[in-house]
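Lab notes, practical 5.
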Amino acid sequence: MLSERRLEVLRAIVQDYVGTEEPVGSKALTERHRLGVSAATVRNDMAVLEEEGYIAQPHTSAGRIPTDKGYRLFVDRLAGVKPLSTPERRAIQNFLDGAVDLDDVVGRTVRLLAQLTRQVAVVQYPSLTRSTVRHVELLSLAPARLMLVLITDTGRVEQRLIDCQAPFADTSLADLRARLNSRVVGRRFTDVPPLVQDLPESFETEDRGTVSTVLATLLETLVEEAEERLMIGGTANLTRFGHDFPLTIRPVLEALEEQVVLLKLLGEASESGMAVRIGHENAYEGLNSTSVVSVGYGSGGESVAKLGVVGPTRMDYPGTMGAVRAVARYVGQILAES
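Output from the prediction step:
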């Protein structure tokens, strides 16, 4: 276990290196921070931190930089989440409040996160497998043609055209709409099939074929959109950090093109808490020089998807964690109110 003083030295090294991009020496630390000890004591503390693997000497200069292990300890023990200012919070709310549908919400969220953190932003669409039904609408387009509209609790809207075997009366359509909603509204997608399987038998014989077709279309809609979707933005921000990536930025860009990799980076959507994966904690080799900050978002206290940012390990962790958490909270509020 490191002493409190050595933890303070590590905190100062991380803060200075993130802020200046230059390796940090003992003289600079004693000048910039009130550590209450001499430069010689700081040099000794830095030697212990280096021996323990928390900092490293990148070249023959006197300065040191944090390692992945050092950043990890900083995040776990030393970094409080930096709260956003009132103008920042107001700007987030105003920007996201203008969204007109789920695609717009996700698109605005990506742009906002990339601007706030100056990193690469990644936002996962709410998964239908974790959604509940808000409403099912049935519209008559022609005597034997219907449109089914499924609206989820996350604001997602799915539309399907249905060609019926025979004309379907408006009264029967209204009856089916009412019965369907009474059974499925507020229910998870996975719970719906057994709730509607006996519906055809409750209709007149000549209408049962159409009711069965409508139900089959609904159930297909509930399962066919299970594939996870992502939106990414701010990739150009990485070019500002070219010197933070060994040799080339190319492996990072290639990794960001792989949706499966990004989904694994964000983690399971059911895990709503803040997650910070640093450097070699990222299983994908191309991202070993990056850190990923992610958190779940959703309505009603339940996480339905993840959002986060990817950037170099030399990252403003308190500020990034604060921005990611604040944006997730606002997106959750929008989903709850939509």
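Observations recorded by the TA: The longest strand covers residues 133-142. Strands lie at 55-56, 65-66, 120-124, 133-142, 145-152, 157-163, 230-233, 275-278, 290-297, 305-312.
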